[in-house]
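On to my pick:
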Amino acid sequence: MQNPRDVANMAIGCIKEGSLDKLLPIFSAVNRQRLGALDDKIRQRMAKFMDKSKRQIGDVTRVGELRDGSARLGPGGVYAFIRKEGDEVFVVSLKKEGADYTFDDINSPSVADYDALKVLEL
């Protein structure tokens, strides 16, 4: 997908649904390679990831602003705002692979680190 907001919203939806099978196609190539064949052990590990991510997302159903994540995610990388809690900002991390954006992870930079990132007008 070429629109980072759409990819981030899709990732949130898949995580809230608990649908690993729907999330896999939008994962970054590196993450898909790390997962390899989805045997029972990998599925158990990913179930824990999905549960943790659900807690991080909270009640949010759509991402907010987009910020430049190139410094940590590589050229074209984007952070999509989920929510703020205390001194943490929860974001969907997206990598740029060719013309498409892919899901990398749910991260929680500090407010100061997040605020230092350039806001994107995409």
The domain at 4-120 is CATH 3.10.450 (Nuclear Transport Factor 2; Chain: A,). DSSP finds six helices and five strands in the chain.
